[in-house]
Design brief:
Layout lengths: L21 E6 L6 H21 L7 E6 L4 H13 L4 E3 L4 H14 L3 E3 L7 H4 L3 E3 L4 H15 L4 E6 L3 H17 L3 E7 L5 H12 L3 E5 L2 H13 L5 E3 L7 H6 L1 H4 L3 E4 L11 H12 L5 H19 L5 H11 L3 E3 L2 E3 L12 E6 L2 E4 H22 L1
Length: 385
C-alpha cells in the first residue's frame, strides 16, 4: 500500500500524558446520503490503515463508529450515545441538515465536532465547538452565479431546489450574484419536494426557454432533474452543486451526467501534489474507483483527528480547541492546506469542474486541452494543405 505523507508525530503522542483518548465517528452510511457516507468511511479507514503503517497512529486511541441513517434526529441521538461512550471529539455532520440538528447536543455535551462536509454558512457561527474542513455554501453559491452569468455570459436561469439545508445555504448567495450584482434573471424556481415538480418544470421550460438550469440538490435528486431535462431535450447549460460529485453516481450514469458543470473545492485526482497522488492511487487500489470530493475531505478529517489526538496533552475540550485552532496551523491535506479561522472554518474558494465521459475534469484544464487539440488540427490542415 502506498503511504500518504504522514505528519511526523510520535506514536504515543502527547495525549498519553492524560487519560486515553476516545473519539467518535458518526457517518450517514445508510439512507438518503448513504452514497456519500460509504465513500467517506472507506477513505477514513484508509487514513487509519496508513497511519498505523507509518507509525503515526496513537497506540492508546479508541474509536467508536455510528450510523446517522441520514436522519437529523438519529444523528443527534447517536452523537449523545458516542459521548456517553467517552468520546471527547466526534467526526460528524455529513449533511448540513444533520449538523444543524446536532448543534444543541454539541453545546450541551461540550464535545467538539469536526465535520468533513457540512457546508451551511451559519453552522460555525452558531457554535464555537463546530469545526469543518469543507468550505461554506456561500462561497459555492457565489462561484456558480459568476460562472453562469459572467463566464458563460448567460442571461436567464431556471432554479431547481431540493429545499434542504444545503439548498437554503447555496441559493441566496447564488441569487445575490446572478440577479442583484450582475442583473441576470431567475425565470422560475422549481421545488423538488412538490409532487408536480416535473410538470411545473416542463411548463416553465416551454414558457421561458431558460438559457441555463441550476440544480441545488443531492446527487440522486440531481439525476432526477437531469433525466427530465434530457427527456425534454433541454439545450441550455446545466450547473449542479458539489453534492453532485458522488463517484458512484457519476460512474453509473455517464451519458446522463456528461457536460454538467459544478463548483467545488480544488480537489482534483490529476493533481500532482505529493500528498494527492499517493492518496488517489491507494484509494483506487482498494475501491476500484477514483475518490470523490467527499472521500477526500473525509480522509483529511480523519488525519486531522489523529493529529489532534497526538498533539493534545490533555484530551479535553479546552485543549482540543487550542490544538485545532493553533497547533494544527497549516496542516497539509489532500484537499489543500487546513487552517481553521476563529469561527472554525477553512477558507477555500471553489473552482469549476465538468463531467466528461463519467470523469470529473478541472474545467480550466479541460478547456485548455480542447483548445490545444483545435490548434493542432488547424496546424495540420495548414501543413497538409
Amino acid at each position: 500500500m502506498v503511504k500518504v505523507g504522514a505528519v511526523a508525530l510520535a506514536c504515543c503522542g502527547l495525549a498519553s500524558c492524560g487519560a486515553n483518548p476516545v473519539i467518535g465517528i458518526l457517518l450517514a452510511e445508510t439512507g438518503e446520503a448513504g452514497t456519500y457516507g460509504t465513500a467517506m468511511k472507506g477513505a477514513m479507514e484508509l487514513a487509519i490503515e496508513q497511519a498505523k503503517a507509518d507509525g503515526s497512529y496513537p497506540a492508546n486511541l479508541t474509536i467508536h463508529w455510528a450510523d446517522s441513517a441520514s436522519d437529523p434526529e438519529t444523528a443527534s441521538e447517536q452523537y449523545k450515545a458516542l459521548v456517553s461512550k467517552g468520546s471527547k471529539m466526534v467526526i460528524a455532520g455529513v449533511t448540513s441538515g444533520e449538523a444543524k440538528a446536532m448543534l444543541p447536543v454539541i453545546e450541551r455535551t461540550n464535545v467538539p465536532c469536526l465535520s468533513p462536509s457540512a457546508s451551511l454558512p451559519s453552522l460555525t457561527k452558531d457554535s464555537k465547538l463546530f469545526y469543518r474542513i469543507f468550505p461554506s455554501d456561500e462561497l459555492e453559491g457565489r462561484r456558480a452565479g459568476r460562472f453562469l452569468r459572467e463566464d458563460q455570459d448567460l442571461d436567464t436561469v431556471l432554479i431547481f431546489s431540493q429545499d434542504s439545508e444545503q439548498a437554503r445555504g447555496i441559493e441566496p448567495p447564488f441569487r445575490h450574484i446572478f440577479e442583484q450584482a450582475m442583473q441576470g434573471k431567475v425565470v422560475d424556481r422549481i421545488l423538488l419536494t412538490d409532487p408536480n415538480w416535473e410538470q411545473q418544470a416542463a411548463d416553465s421550460c416551454a414558457a421561458n426557454n431558460p438559457e441555463s438550469a441550476y440544480i441545488i440538490a443531492y446527487a440522486n435528486e440531481t439525476l432526477d432533474v437531469l433525466r427530465l431535462l434530457r427527456d425534454k431535450d433541454f439545450k441550455g447549460v446545466v450547473c449542479a452543486t458539489s453534492a453532485f460529485n458522488s463517484g458512484y453516481v457519476l460512474e453509473k450514469n455517464p451519458e446522463l451526467t456528461d457536460g454538467v458543470y459544478f463548483p467545488q473545492p480544488a480537489f482534483d485526482v490529476t493533481d500532482e501534489r505529493p500528498l494527492v497522488q499517493p492518496f488517489v492511487t491507494s484509494y483506487r487500489e482498494q475501491f476500484s474507483q477514483d475518490p470523490d470530493i467527499y472521500a477526500a475531505h473525509a480522509f483529511d478529517a480523519m488525519r486531522v483527528a489523529l493529529a489532534t489526538v497526538t498533539l493534545t496533552e490533555i484530551f479535553e475540550t479546552p485543549e482540543i480547541r487550542k490544538t485545532l485552532q493553533f497547533k494544527l496551523a497549516e496542516f497539509p491535506g489532500v484537499t489543500g492546506v487546513i487552517q481553521f479561522n476563529d469561527y472554525g472554518d477553512v477558507h477555500r474558494n471553489p473552482i469549476m469542474f465538468i463531467v466528461k465521459d463519467g470523469k470529473v475534469r478541472n474545467y480550466e484544464r479541460y478547456v485548455e486541452a480542447e483548445k490545444k487539440k483545435i490548434r493542432e488540427k488547424i496546424r495540420n490542415l495548414l501543413i497538409n494543405g
